[in-house]
Amino acid sequence: MPRFVTGSLLRHVFVMASTAAIGLVAVFAVDLINLFYISRLGEKEIAAAIGFAGVVGFFHTSISIGLTIGITAAVSRAIGAGRRADAQRLATSSLVLMVAITALIGSGSALFLHPMLRALGATGETERLAARYLAVTVHALPLLGIGMACSALLRSVGDAGRAMTVTLGAAVVTAVLDPILIFGFGMGLDGAAVASVLSRCTLAAVGLRAVMARHQLLGRFERAALGADARRLASVAAPAVLSNLATPVGVAFVTHSVAQFGASAVAGQATIDRLTPVAFGLVYALSGAVGPILAQNLGARHYGRVRDGLRESLRFMVIAVGAAWLLLALGQGLIVRAFSADGLAAELIHAFCSWVAAGFFFTGALFVANAAFNNLGRPLLSTGFNWARATLGTIPFAWWGSHYGPVGVLAGAAVGTAIFGTLAMVMAFRLTARLVADASALPDAVVAVLVPPATADNAPR
Prior knowledge:
Elements: H1 9-39, H2 44-80, H3 84-109, H4 113-120, H5 124-137, H6 141-156, H7 160-184, H8 189-214, H9 223-259, H10 263-279, H11 281-299, H12 303-338, H13 343-354, H14 360-375, H15 379-390, H16 395-402, H17 406-437, H18 442-450
Helix pairs in contact: 1-2, 1-7, 1-8, 1-10, 1-11, 1-12, 2-3, 2-5, 2-6, 2-9, 2-10, 2-11, 3-6, 3-9, 4-5, 5-8, 6-7, 6-8, 7-8, 9-10, 9-15, 9-16, 9-17, 10-11, 10-13, 11-12, 11-14, 12-13, 12-14, 12-17, 14-15, 14-17, 15-17, 16-17
């Protein structure tokens, strides 16, 4: 029986988000660990290079996350509707598509590293170092994609614990190898790049083992069905990828705006960019973690639970952001010392931990709304709100804030996020309210599209 159609919704949100957060934090902790050890070298240019490389890597990771949202939604709906064989075929097709897409994007971007870095504001030695780091890591993007896809498949069947261990193992590998390669073998920045690749190898291996050996979730690859499966996945994944790309676009503009204040400011921004997903891991995990809960209840036609799931997700988000903000505010001095920050870098970190981080209440609202849009058949709303926030909610506000220094850039971007996060949440609640009000008409009008009835091709076998 599908796990999320009964029981406490708040408990389901807590378990799925907390375990997914550990796994997701592990993915981003790899970059944070790299930056920590690199910062111990005491060279601002290297720390700034990691910052610029991280923005490019954020684009890659966002594409992978967007694809996993489509995987989670499609496979969860099939499981919620009792179509196990259909779910297995979709799972296999999703891995094939993930590898193909990430290989094309990862290796393809290697041809444009210097133009991309210069567009972000990197120059001279910082640009050269960032390109050297990326020249190693971009080719390993398919390994990251496989691991993240396997974690999504495990969440689709409700196995949040194993989904967590998939990415946790990769972080452990990085934590062990980074000091050995960077300092022990004297490889510096190159050692950080090699450690990142090896951690992705671990991510893919552990993920495939959990999906194949424990749940037998991968079915036989059916080439004839790949096109249809791709279209089904793309119905959610394509808008989700577009939605997720909006965030790194906004980050890229913020990084470009901060770059005008020098390497120290970029190093501070790099620390914030890597600290943020770790500190707010519960919030980042909500879009993917809440998705299976909403999708299974939609598949089972429990529309009241869909609405209540959104409400409980918002409540959970508020608590998570409040706790993270408190920890950042209390630990800001330790963070500054740990990353050897001084000057503008320290100023940026202090401002972020003290009050800019409060803007994540609205970022979290946007993430929760995205989960509703992506899993209730309105993914274009997610795309629209994310891009509005990344453009209208970032560019003019960050430009205005740049007149007051690098801290003003962060503050301006936070104001724009507050506007569009609020609007997105209002729209999400209107959508679920309409779903409940029209429940008598939806089974024929909408659910038949979202959850296709069993046919000779997809009937349970």
